[in-house]
Amino acid sequence: MHIITWQAFIVFRKAVQRDCRRCDGGLRRIFRKPGKSPGSRLCLDTMSEKEDDKSKGENQQAADPTQDSGATAEDEEEKGKSKDEDTAGCQKVENKADYLHVAGESQVYTATKDTLFSKNTSVAETQALSPKWVFGINSDFPVFTLQDKDQLVLLYTSGFGIIYNHTLNVQHILQGHSTNISCMCLSEDRRWIATADCGSESMVIIWDAYSGLPVQTLFNCHPPGGVIGVAFSSNTKHLVTLGRENIQCVCVWDWITDSQKPVCFTEINPEYGFQKYVAYRPNDGIQLLTGSESHVLFYCIVERNLEYLALGLKRFMKADKCAAGRAVPPLSDPSTTTHQSNMSWSLFHLRMPRILTVIGRDVVVWDVTEDLVENQILSDKTIVHLCLQDNPITALTMADGLVITGDTKGEICFYDDTLSLLCWYKNFNLDPIASISFTKECNKGHTQECVQEDEAVIMGKLLICTVTSTVLQLNTQSGSIQTLVHGERELHHAVACHPSRPFVALGSQLGILKVWDYKKNTVTDRRVFETEGSIQCVSFDHNGIYLAVGFSSGSVQILNANAIQSDSAESLRCTTDSIHLIAFSSDSQYLATADAGKALTVFHMQRNEGSLPQWICLDRYHSHSKPITDLLFGLHLDNTYPRLLSLGMDRQLVEYDLEKSSAGQLIIKSSDRIEQSAVPLCMTWFPPLTTEQFLLIASDQYKMKLFNSMTKMCRKTVQGPTLGSPIRQMMVLPKHKEPEMMSYHLAFITDDRLGLQILPVDGNPYKSTELICHATGVSSASCSYDGKCIFTTGVSDRSSIMWEINLNVLQAAAALGGKDMTPFYSQLDGGREGKFYRDMEDCFYFCQVRHYGSSLMKNQPVPTEIPLSEVPSLMRAVGYFPTEQEIEDMQNEVKFSRYAETGKYVTDIDLQECIKLYINHRPAFGISHNELVQAFHVLGKSESTAQPVLLRHELLELLQTRGEPMTMDEVEECFATLLGLKSEDNKEEEDYGEHLLEREVPEEISPETFTDYILGFPLPNRKEGSRSPPPE
Predict the structure, then answer these.
(1) Which of 22, 514, 756, 981 holds its CA 20 to 30 A away from the CA of 33?
(2) What is the pLDDT of residues 817-853, one digit of tens each?
């Protein structure tokens, strides 16, 4: 059957696969009393008592989302009469003693501050891939302090939420979101963490900071935009979220219960601007605020209704320049203002009923009362406008009644309740401040060591994060500053692991190259390339002597891998096009690069007596008409001389003859087209599981193919992983030394996922696993020398991640998928007992009858196989219509399957092998109607209605000249069959010819005409079995 006939017989079917990556919400019930309704509340105050005992009287107060620490059930009942309980709709907490037994059995209840980093069971034991270390900090989010006494523990984000123990230099990753975290907050007692995202199925996860476990998940909080702001109430009872919908919504949640509905919510008028953040008022559960560039919205919960008042900022954005600290009277005429700022945000005063709003270098103080929202009136007399500093303020926080600011000059200022300056730290030469938080409560005092002798000194420590992601700790009493985390805001784009040592090289788009010791979690070397542009790719040679770096400027730097700052580096340049692939040969004598100009460049190490080895350029060759997708060095079977292959989007696999090549002349040994319609994306050497040498190549149609490395014949096709996007890079992991781990394994990345595959590949979906590693995209990956870790770099999330591999988990998951044919039956519609299997079985038996005929009736063993010649008919009978090339690939796959072991061809195939063949060769998601419409857009022309149309003579010409050409007789026969003009009972219609095509086939053919009238597939609004008449 020819390629166009295959298109004519396409069966349009829907293949819907959704990646349900939802965080396990089972821990939501860990505190619930048995037998209680879903509305039963959690009682966590007993945790405080348990921790007090463990700390021998130390003043450690754990979180109490339902009541204040130490309160009894009677106290809570009295509090139930308060306005807070009435307005927020809170229920009375049940007797605390009833929860002791249930709570005592949970991991969260028994957790202390030391639990997280002293656990014997790690996440890696239950997951095939688990993040072990994340390089980078997103300075757009604040850095919090979780602990600061015995150990210094920080909380920040970099795609994931990260709990970093600075004392032990270890991390715990809060893994649960399928997209990057969009906002995060911490409860006042530092026990509970809330993270949220802005994915299509956004969710909010509440974590226990002591154990690192999720305790609650709120699904689809703000569809479809997701969550952009989140905050805890001061008593941790409620959580407020701010959505990013077209019409934004603010929701208040009682997160302790199982309810997925907010306690109260309100929609925001779009005229008040896009609200970017949300905050609760300290020591108050009914007042909160949100802010945009133009307005601050002050909310109050009144009888379970969330109402707000808008406070306009435009009149303060053009204030006259003034001396710092001088009050500016409220401005009623915006035309008299001159100062303009694009930055504004607000927070509540800790002790007074006020809101502080930062606008550039100014601060606006609003006096707010409980009846303000109800009256909807704010007097100008209650507003104070101060020009606080000379430099624009970039960070603002409050601690123990102190107002703390950071500015664009990296200076830190402390103010009292009246905004009078107390202290000013300005000689640290810091980058602009991004966020400020306190490691312990700050206090005012008086001492001789004060920064300014006539002022009070601040007692405590501050945690500072700059816009370059440097985290520092400021001792306000001594005035000393300590760097905790060095700036890692560089956008890492390239990664490569050392072949024999625990080092990984990371290259950034800022031209910064780092070498990281992933055993000690420290940077061992760093170099900045100021004139070469961004680093696009890096690679160690197989001996660990050289480190090659490819730049966007077209330059290639070959460095000493043990001292990248050495002046002995060689700079090579043969093009101005960006280098995006780079690879060494196994003997370190050749280096190949691929650039954006669709060219391959080969460098050779030349050794002359009396001089040091020197790299020379052999040649730069345009061997592909489209971009090169992969480079691969190998060894010849008959000798140890290197061989080089390149793979391109032009579907060509090119091999170069390095042995015969010389300077200025790169010789191509062979060039083979390996795909008809699919685009090959990456390749690797298949491990030596057989006596033959194979190339494993993955394509954009979710297929993985084995090619004989010498003949380039396709010897096997299997269905690859289908979650997300196709495989873009893959590598075979070093074989484990453990005797029970006999299999080889493959690691791969897609657009945003990292995965593992058990080799050999056979189409069993349970032998692979994958997860989202970088929600905004992954740019590259590299495996450690011992095969225990994989490193990935993100496209735009400014992070690189070290993933720990646990192959035992992958093997266990494959075993749970079933043995023998069970995993393959599960991929058929209806499974082993379904109608499709019975139909395929009937077609298989019919092929036997057609081939063997009456011999089946004789007294002899009934054959269980069919000849290979019947395979195409069987595939077409069950709805898969392969091209002639695909038929040849299927037959070769079976024919040569045992040739290396037995020296004989396989000529017959049984039903089970036919099922495997069908599953692995059929299109991964079928053929959609959109693909057919796209083909008409490419081949035809569009009318004024933008409807693509293909003329009859154009279609006939394409069928006879493109793809796998058909003869005119074959074209006429196919149309006669499709249109029902050829049958056993209608002999006169067999005299078909070109006049029949002119009579039966319309002059203009649209996608609908081709689908409905010619193919006979009903349109969505047409009943199945009916067929439209030919168009006029």
Answers:
(1) 22
(2) 999 999 999 999 999 999 999 999 999 999 998 888 8
